[in-house]
Specification:
4-stranded antiparallel beta sheet, 0% helix, 116 residues, 7-stranded mixed beta sheet, single chain, globular
């Protein structure tokens, strides 16, 4: 079992920045990749950033150049630095961990609201 706890969400004005954190605990040795997803009201959950154990990262065009995912292996924590935030970035952001032997896990979500 892996537990994921997000923090760092909140309210920010357009153009501002936020950093989300996701602390993993439990059977973290099985984790091969971690990611951040978001879900806005009435929309499907979408991937916003991913990082695999080798350090490679992926971003969709909608956030590329504005969001940065990073991982501190010693702390079993993954971060999402979000800059130049836009109102359309408003969503609940979820941490995701892919575990080679046990499937995948989700955090409880943290709300990010960007005001115009």
């Amino acid at each position: 079992q892996v537990q994921l706890v997000e923090s760092g969400g909140g309210l920010v004005q357009a153009g501002g920045s936020l950093r989300l954190s996701c602390a993993a605990s439990g059977d973290t040795i099985c984790i091969s990749a971690m990611a951040w997803y978001r879900q806005a009201p009435g929309k499907e959950r979408e991937l916003v950033a991913a990082i695999i154990n080798g350090g490679s990262t992926y971003y969709p065009d909608s956030v590329k150049g504005r969001f940065t995912i990073s991982r501190d292996n010693a702390k079993n924590t993954v971060y999402l630095q979000m800059n130049s935030l836009k109102p359309e970035d408003t969503a609940v952001y979820y941490c995701f961990a892919d575990c080679l032997t046990e499937g995948h896990y989700w955090g409880q979500g943290t709300q990010v609201t960007v005001s115009s």
